[in-house]
């Protein structure tokens, strides 16, 4: 089911992960800052055109914003992790996986 508030939270989270201010991100997707705020707070519906700009600018999958826990999104995340590790040495891979495990523990402890 379409949930504007959840989609808005995911958009905001992805924007913040990329260290983009609302003002800068609004400029990049060619919308006003108040309109972006409404999107992130789930107060307005998105057009397909603006949603596409958001996905392209943030370089995230559309399904990760719409339905974060769907199998397709999890498959995408798994593929992205594989891509990230593909050119790493054994030591780099082990370090990244250790950090991912630690981050997972931190995230779960805050829930």
TrEMBL record:
Q: Name one GO molecular function term.
A: DNA binding
Any matching Pfam family: HTH_3
Keyword annotations for this protein, in alphabetical order, are:
DNA-binding
Q: Which domain of life is it from?
A: Bacteria
Q: Where is the HTH cro/C1-type domain?
A: 11-65
Native source organism of the sequence: Hominiventricola filiformis
GO CC terms in record: cytosol
Per its record, how is this protein called by name? Helix-turn-helix domain-containing protein
């Amino acid at each position: 089911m379409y949930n504007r508030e959840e989609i808005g939270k995911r958009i905001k989270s992805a924007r913040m992960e990329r260290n983009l201010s609302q003002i800068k991100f609004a400029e990049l997707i060619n919308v006003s800052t108040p309109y972006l705020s409404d999107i992130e707070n789930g107060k307005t519906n998105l057009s397909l055109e603006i949603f596409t700009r958001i996905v392209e600018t943030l370089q995230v999958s559309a399904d990760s914003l719409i339905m974060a826990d769907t199998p397709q999104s999890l498959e995408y995340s798994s593929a992205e992790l594989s891509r990230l590790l593909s050119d790493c040495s054994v030591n780099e891979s082990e370090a990244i996986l250790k950090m991912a495990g630690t981050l997972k523990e931190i995230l779960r402890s805050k829930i």
